[in-house]
Amino acid sequence: MDWIISDEYKLTVGNVLGHLAAAAMICGGVLPYVPQYRQIYRTQDPEGFSLHVCLALLIANTLRIFFWFSKRYELPLLIQSVVMNITMFLMIHLCVKVRRNNAIMRARERVFSDQAVTSVDGISPINKPNTNSESRQPSSENTVISQSKHYISDFDSRYFWAWTDFQSYLDFLLVVWAVGAAVTYIMLPVNWFMEMIGFLAVFTEAMLGAPQFLRNYRNKSTHGMSFLMVIMWTIGDVYKTTYFILRSAPIQFWLCGMLQVSLDLAILLQVYIFRKNPAPRSAHRGD
Predict the structure, then answer these.
(1) Phi then psi for 203, rounded to 5 degrees?
(2) What are the pLDDT digits (tens) for 60-75?
(3) 117 near 168, Cβ under 8 Å?
(4) pTM score over 0.90
């Protein structure tokens, strides 16, 4: 029998531990990104952090939110998805801001939606030829503002998720949220479709470590990878998977949680195998 702490609030040891576990689930996922955020802010160098991590987590947590309308899983898991999305937007905002501040010149803007774009020497950034003149610092009288229209139909996959302004990332996610919400509303009664949404949500998050694993394998080195980051990933994923199993979360959650732990352990194994290997020549380029 649980020890009663307070008759007024009916608090028990089990209830307190449950609330602490829920709080850890909500906040624990964002903790690995706190030191990364502080490092980028302190060094003003975002090149060691891949924004594709933010993309994967934004898509995964957005799909998880949609899945909640079909299977009302525990509220802390829903809140965690919202908190993680906010955290990823903060990371993107900082990286984009630092990159723009570090840029010598902004002769070519890459945006997602229709916006005013700065061009140099009166030439549109889209139509401007790729010559050595772009590397020269333009004078203030040569810099003009032109309306270079960018539509979704003009989408260039080479610059996907490599836009030069924060608004473009926000615009893209707004489109994803709008389309996803409409599809979810229409397909909500279709059980197999919503189950697939739940699986895609946790599978996308589970495969977060795959690009890092492949990069380490290709370079035969783990140089430039934060060992502390992977340790925190592993601890968090083990806790998260255990939480899913003990709290009887949908099967998609804990199966993909086990996959995520397996990837974390594989990356840690790479650290041991490649510990004596030198840094690859391209390590200074970042991701």
Answers:
(1) -70, -40
(2) 999 999 999 988 887 8
(3) no
(4) no
